[in-house]
Amino acid sequence: MRVTIRVRPGASRTAVGGRYGDALVVAVQARAVDGAATKAALEAVAGALGIRRREVTLLTGATSRTKTVEVPDATASRLADLMREAD
Questions:
Q1: 3-class state of residue 51 by DSSP
Q2: Distance in angstroms (rounded) separating the CA atoms of residues 42 and 3
Q3: CB 17 within 8 A of CB 48
């Protein structure tokens, strides 16, 4: 399943939840330098969905705050819950 995420680098804490338009908000402490924020965001998404990091694949947006990732279809229910959570 493809999911759009909106990364917020430089946050005070790492958190996954809430919406930015149709995207899932992923706040990470890492700065947007040398792909650190992207790596942290993919790890945060995997942790929030209860899956391994290797099951989250970056499809588009390596250098953008808005990214598209591929996750297993079995995570749809948990993903819907995260989208409803407030920041």
A1: coil
A2: 12
A3: yes
Which residue from 19, 13, 46 is spatially nearest to 4, judged by alpha carbons? 19
* 3-state SS class at 10: coil
Structure tokens at 67: 């990214």
Q: What is the C-alpha to C-alpha distance for residues 32 and 9, in angstroms, rounded to an integer? A: 6
- Pick from 15, 29, 37: which is nearest to 87 by CA? 15
Query: Could you report the per-residue pLDDT of 21-71, keeping only the tens digit for each?
Result: 999 999 999 999 999 999 999 999 999 999 999 999 999 999 999 999 999
> In the block, which residue shows the tokens 């970056």?
58
Q: Which residue has the tokens 């493809």?
A: 2
- In sequence order, what E strands does 1-87 have? 2-8, 15-20, 23-27, 57-60, 66-70
**Helix 76-84 to helix 36-49 angle, to the nearest 10 degrees?**
110
